[in-house]
Design a protein that fits this description.
The chain is mostly helical. It has eleven helices and no strands.
């Protein structure tokens, strides 16, 4: 009598080959899912940024206005600020920093969604669940946090350049540019020149200014993605689910609405950190009022902002930011789900 010993999970040689084939197929599906998520994320991020960039310029300029006396502020609110920028600097001024914004947004969302998708798959495997199915809120939070940290470290230099170019009045043209030239300000010629100049003059520390508040802002993405997944499961409750992995099925329009709602939850909680980051990332070699404070570190920026301006100082530029990020998030998630659906070509079960 012979005794055949078969490893657990394998039904003899043929079963072993079938299991290995399934494992290879699963690995191919995982890789395909990653690149689809990346392409969908890039499309969503670039689309929303291009459409809504002028509001980001207004927001950034309002964020760094740190004079407690509102009468000395250059921009008296979002609407008047936008009008003044257009009047003094034209279209180029209202689109200052657009190149790094589009590049950074595309890379950020692409990398974020790809890493997030992979992290969710790992947690699903660890919990014994379908890779694209529902996960506990804690697992979604951990996946979003992982993706946020990786993306933040990867893209921080791009956001430093964006902030500097947005605060560079005139975009190289008009009276604002002439005024800057008379003051002796060395202007950046564009995205690549700014990146190279910061790297040469300020080194790695200059490129990574504001990294600490940026890491704190990872909680923003974690809050938003967790809220989005939760709202998505509620919206898809009782519906047929996608055949591949059992993912919740929502239309692009629904995804846009869910993206807007989840963004509002996140932005309300984390906006003060954005103000602090902008103040740290601004140039220190540009002429400012004699009594203007400097912001070298996160704690210092928080304490000085509060001492000079109170809680209100942490919400400067909040209105244009909300107007920008809510539709931006809606566009991003609608494009993401729409493109992902086309790439997957995956019918509902």
């Amino acid at each position: 009598m012979s005794i055949s010993i078969t490893p657990p999970g394998l039904d003899g040689p043929r079963g072993g080959r079938r299991s290995m084939a399934r494992a290879r197929a699963d690995a191919r599906d995982a890789r395909a899912s990653d690149w689809r998520a990346f392409v969908a994320g890039v499309a969503g991020g670039a689309s929303s940024t291009l459409a809504l960039h002028p509001l980001d310029v207004v927001k950034t300029r309002l964020q760094v206005q740190d004079d407690p006396d509102a009468r000395r502020a250059r921009y008296a609110g979002a609407w008047r600020g936008a009008r003044r920028i257009v009047a003094e600097e034209g279209v180029r001024g209202i689109y200052a920093g657009a190149t790094p914004a589009i590049v950074g947004s595309a890379v950020s969302w692409g990398a974020y969604f790809a890493w997030y998708d992979g992290a969710r798959a790992r947690y699903a495997d660890a919990l014994g669940r379908e890779r694209n199915g529902a996960l506990p809120a804690g697992a979604n939070m951990m996946a979003a946090t992982e993706a946020g940290v990786v993306t933040t470290v990867l893209t921080n230099p791009i956001w430093v350049v964006k902030t500097r170019l947005q605060l560079q009045r005139g975009g190289g043209l008009g009276d604002a540019a002439s005024e800057a030239a008379k003051s002796g300000e060395k202007r950046y010629a564009g995205f690549v020149d700014a990146l190279a100049t910061i790297a040469r003059k300020e080194g790695l520390r200059g490129l990574y200014k504001g990294l600490v508040p940026s890491i704190w802002l990872v909680s923003h993405g974690s809050i938003q993605l967790t809220a989005y997944e939760w709202l998505k499961e509620i919206a898809a409750s009782g519906r047929a689910r996608r055949a591949r992995g059992g993912a919740a099925d929502v239309a692009p329009v629904e995804a846009g609405a869910l993206g807007l709602a989840s963004k509002f939850i996140a932005v309300t909680a984390t906006y003060p950190i954005q103000v602090v980051r902008a103040r740290i990332q601004q140039r220190s070699d540009v002429g400012r009022p004699a009594d203007a404070p400097t912001y070298a570190r996160f704690g210092e920026a928080v304490s000085r902002t509060f001492a000079r301006e109170g809680v209100r100082g942490f919400y400067k530029g909040f209105a244009p930011n909300v107007v920008r990020v809510l539709p931006s998030s809606a566009i991003t998630f609608a494009a993401y789900e729409g493109v992902l659906g086309v790439l997957n070509d995956d019918p509902v079960a």
